Structures are given as structure tokens and as C-alpha cells.
Amino acid sequence: MKRRFLGLLVIAGLCFVTCGNEPPPDFYNGTPEDDDKINDILDNDYPELLVTGDQFMTQYAGMTIPEVDFPQEDSFFRVDSPLVQVHVDSIADSLSEFHRFADLWYAKDTSCTVWLFDTFDVSGMIHVDIRYTAHFDLPETTATGDTIWRIGTTDIDSTPTDDYEDYNGVGLRYIFLEPVRSTTPTIDPETEDTIGYAIIEPFEWELRRISYGTYYFPARGTDIPVIDYVVLETDTIFAYDTVSSFTGHAMNRFKHIDSLLTYTADTTLSVEVVLDGDIDAGDCVFFASSGAGWEELIDGTGTLTVTGSDITNLYFKVITRESYYYYFPNRGYFAVAWLIPVRLN
Q1: C-alpha to C-alpha distance for 45 and 48, rounded to whole angstroms
Q2: What angle do CA 157, 162, 163 make, to 5 degrees?
Q3: Cis peptide before 139 (omega within 30 of 0)
Q4: CA–CA distance from 188 to each of 20, 21, 192, 199, 231 (Å)?
Q5: What pLDDT does residue 241 have?
Q6: Which of 270, 321, 322, 279 is nearest to 297 (CA)?
Q7: Structural contact between residues 154 and 214, judged by C-beta atoms closer than 8 angstroms
Q8: For the chain, what is the HEC assignment?
Q9: 219-225 CB contacts, 8 Å cutoff, 24+ apart
Q10: Which residues in the chain land under pLDDT 50?
């Protein structure tokens, strides 16, 4: 009885303390007017931040890869079918379809994060200068008496041809906005401490920070190259960083719109793209672009001429060589691209 009586006293005390107090405010969910204002900012004040399709280049770019090498124990070994490999000397892209899912997420701190989820359908165009057709027509008897078939004859066709392969990709970026606040601080009347800055009503929104973008072709997986970091002149952009005191540039972190990397337009930057993971740089081809054509980076190293004005997207793309070597059976297209917005002056 005593324990039950004490419990009732505690409940009564809590009711006494909370009665008359206003409930905490609900999380801010945004309004259609907020949606319109934010979309207007993106469409008219920062339209360049919505551009991602310029990473696909319709003009051909030269590509340097070694001559075709047929391993005797090929992973696509089939006795009843030839193995066709091609040597590609230049590539281009044709964006056939683009879809964007843009979602506005309002948070309890009265901010809004815009999710930009893109999907692409692309025709990857190739120029083939040599085509090799290998036939598994050479029998070989093993020590156990079994017969295995190896590549015996190879037909070589040096007639230049154009071809293409359809592939798809996905990517995600974030844009962070906050409402405009008063420049006059709000003062606690009891402590005279500054407790913040009030939001000016009706709400007017400001774009504050953005993320970089990573695009996977066709989607995340072990066959896709992994970029560890990119070096532009003396600036390094890392793939990942979680240290709270970090002030540099990382693909997984928001960056203030006024703190983007800044370069002079029409200048040439030294570039280095370094990979991580199981796929070696020697098995890939590298490209960089500022939206005006691809520039090849040999083994991930080269130069990039930045063009445009104000905010411009720089792209860094890594494609596995096997995406081009194998024509039949087709091994598939595997690539990753980084989108890094920079400010040009």
C-alpha cells in the first residue's frame, strides 16, 4: 500500500508540474508555399546545381588502352562459341533518358534538405579500330586423359567500326536550406543570455550548403571501381571523413555554398585520381571534365581545363577496361563518377 501511495504522489506531482505548461512545438513540416519558394531558388538562383546530365559527352574522346590479350584460361571459356574482343580507341555518350526524384525533407530545426536522386539511361558509343575473334579449336590432353580446348586460331579484322552499348546509372546529391533569421539576437529576460536569432516571417529561404555527387554505373557493386580521393592542384577531395573538426572537402560531407573550391576560369589544373578497393588502376581508364568534353587521365594522372562561370561541376570518371575489351560474351559496363561543384572567378 505504501509503495502504491508513493506512486500516486509522484504522478500527482508530475501533473502539478506540467499542468499549465504549453506542449513542445511540433516539428516543422513545411508548407506548399515553402516548397514553391525553395524550388524557385533552385530553378532561378542556382540552376547550375541541378545540372548533372552534362557528364555525358556526345563528342568522342580518345582512350588509351593496351592491345587485346587473350588469356588461355579465360573466365568466359566456351568450346561451342568464339570469344570476341575489340580494341577501342575513342568513346562518347548519348543520354537517352533521364529521371529525377526530388524530395524536400523538413526537419525539427526548421531546415530543409532537398534530395536529388537521378537515374540515367545512356548509350555508350565506341569506335573500334581492331576486332579479334578467338576460336577454342585447339585440343589438349591433360595428364588424366581428359581433353580441354584452348584458343587455337584468331581472326583479326582491322576495319574501323562504330558501335554502342546501353547502360544505366544512379546518383544522389543533397542541398541544404535554412530560413532567413533576424540579425538581432533574442535575449533571455531572466539570464540576459543570447538564446538565438528568430526566424523572420513569412519564411524566406536561403541555400546554405550542398553535397558532392557520386554516380554508379550500373549500380553499387564489387565490379565498380572505388575512388579514394581526387587531387586538384594542391586541393584534395576525400571519399569519406567523419571527424567533427574536419574542415576540408569530402564526398560524404555538406560544404557551405561560399566555401567551395575556387579556381580561375579557363586555367589548366593538374589532376590525380586515386582508387581504393579491389580494382586496380591498371585495369581502368580515367577521365575528367568540366562539362565541355572528356580529358583522359593516363593511369589517373593528367590535366583538366576548367571552363564556365560562377559555379561549375567538375566530373571524374573511372571505367573498367573490361567494359570495352569484351564484345562477346559481353561482360557489362562498370564505372563510377564523382561530381564536384567548384566556383570559378
Answers
A1: 9
A2: 105
A3: no
A4: 21, 18, 5, 16, 48
A5: 93
A6: 270
A7: no
A8: CHHHHHHHHHHHHHHHHHCCCCCCCCCCCCCHHHHHHHHHHHHHHCHHHHCCHHHCCCCCEECCCCCCCCCCCCCCCCCCCCEEEEEEEEEEEEEEEEEEEEEEEECCCCCEEEEEEEEEEEEEEEEEEEEEEEECCEEEECCCCCEEEECCEEEEECCCEEEEEEEEEEEEEEEEEEECEEEEEEECCCCCCEEEEEECCCCCEEEEEECCEEEEECCCCCCCCEEEEEEECCEEEECCCCCCCCCCEECCCCEEHHHCCEECCCCEEEEEEEEECCCCHHHEEEEEECCCCCEEEECCEEEEECCCCEEEEEEEEEEECHHHHEEECCCCCCEEEEEEEEEEC
A9: 219/169, 219/170, 221/334, 222/278, 223/279, 223/320, 223/332, 223/334, 224/279, 224/320, 224/334, 224/335, 224/336, 225/275, 225/277, 225/279, 225/284, 225/318, 225/319, 225/320, 225/334, 225/335, 225/336
A10: 1-20, 75
Return the sign of the alpha-carbon dihedral for residues 65, 272, 57, 268.
negative
Task: Mark residue 266 as left, alpha or beta (left: phi above 0; alpha: psi -120 to 50; beta: remaining).
Answer: left
Cα–Cα dist 270/272, whole Å: 7
**Which pairing describes strands 262-263 and 335-344: parallel, antiparallel, or unpaired?**
parallel
Instruction: Please report where in the chains the cell 508513493 appears, as a residue.
Output: 6
Give 203-225 pLDDT, tens digit per residue. 999 999 999 999 999 977 788 99
For residue 61, the cross-strand partners are: 91
pLDDT tens digits along 288-332: 999 878 999 999 999 999 998 889 999 999 999 989 988 888 888
pLDDT of residue 320: 95
